[in-house]
Design a protein that fits this description.
The protein has 1 helix and 8 strands, in the order αββββββββ. The protein is mainly beta. Strand 7 and strand 8 (167-176) form a beta hairpin. The radius of gyration is 24 Å and the shape is globular. The termini are far apart.
């Protein structure tokens, strides 16, 4: 019985002294930590049109259309009155070839105004033909995985529908605590 008490005491001392001593005695990259004040989330409903100004296809997989090919681009954001409200940068990577197109992992940063407010989306969408555009009139849903400014640490989702060869309609619901 005494041996088990000694083993338990040694285990407790080893566990309690290990990390607590290290944090106190060593320099740390953590400056301050504490509880985050509880706030009610803010909900943003955002709708705009993204217009591709630049689009490039990089054949980085096997020769010809294949998994790992990259389609990247950038463009402008427009409100329903036709006023430019920002810009975007997009990057897709083919993850699966289909008989009538492909599936791609999409990563986009949408910056509004002077660029201080932005949202980032990520997800997989379906695209037509050989390294073509997103399927027209089919809505793809992507996750909002972060943002800056009024959208700091945002979550939520965006639904994207291709209108024509360069314009996409976006409808997003973003939630943030800031």
């Amino acid at each position: 019985m005494i041996i088990w008490m000694r083993i338990a005491l040694i285990a407790v001392l080893t566990i309690s002294s290990g990390s607590a001593t290290y944090a106190k005695d060593q320099p740390s990259y953590i400056i301050v930590f504490g509880n985050v004040p509880e706030r009610k989330p803010i909900k943003y409903e955002i709708a705009f049109v993204s217009r591709f100004d630049n689009r490039i296809v990089v054949d980085s997989g096997a020769l010809g259309p294949s998994v790992d090919d990259v389609i990247a681009g950038s463009g402008s954001l427009w409100d329903k009155k036709g006023v430019q409200i920002g810009r975007f940068d997009a990057n897709t990577r083919v993850s699966e070839r289909l008989s009538d197109g492909d599936k791609r992992l999409l990563f986009v940063n949408y910056s509004f105004g002077d660029g201080q407010d932005s949202i980032v989306i990520l997800g997989v969408g379906t695209y037509t033909g050989t390294l073509g555009l997103m399927n027209q009139q089919v809505t793809n849903t992507f996750a909002i995985v972060g943002g800056t400014g009024k959208f700091l640490a945002a979550g939520g989702q965006c639904q994207i529908t291709r209108i024509d060869s360069i314009n996409y309609q976006l409808s997003c619901t973003a939630f943030t605590d800031y």
